[in-house]
# Entry
Amino acid sequence: MTADFSSSDLKIFSKPLPTNGAAVLMGFPGSGLVGTIALQYMVDQMDFELIGSITSKFFPPLAMMNRGLINDPVRVYAKNDDKINIAAIVADVPIAPMICYEISNGILEWVNQYQPKEVLTIAGIITNEPEKRVFGVATTPAALTRIEEHTMVLPIGSISGIASSILTECKVRNIPAVGLLGETVNAPDPRASAATIEVLNKMYNLALDIQPLIEQAVEIEQSMGKLAEEVQQSADTTPKKDLPMYG
# Structure
């Protein structure tokens, strides 16, 4: 497969995304690995087609494996039928703060040519509460309306990490975008991922059963512990003093 997009920062080897107004969902490792776990579960359970992969000189030297087989560090999936029109970008590698712009800019440059209906990114938000709430942000008033009934809208503050860069790139490119932030702890958290899937079910009429994910929680927490450590090491842990920061 030849590169569908190539720059000095990023290379994307993929079939074209659906062009008839697809939603593009993205999940990168962050707090609780919420986005990675949620979207990998979705594409596995709903038989999405693996259509491509993304590589970069900036990615850390980390490879996840499943039953002895190495995964591409960032994978592109799609499902386009009478009921579902969704593409998903799922990552196993943490993105360090100093390269978030290069990665998000390259991905959105590629995604934008297919004129997506909207972009949605899933991340984690660490709180001191035991609940598994889902917080929401958006780049436009219309996008915010779509999630107001399904999430707790964050009133003020800032978002860090690759999720913030993706949302910013969508904002400047006039792509409607939503950020879902699952309440989590700083360890692999399938239960927080399940809570964000419940929101996806409502937004996209997926009817995706989360019970198997809950039942696999302990196994997932153990298998993804090393990735969680890598995320912690690459994270910028210096908070801003004037506003609460999420991500």
Notes: DSSP finds eight helices and 14 strands in the chain.
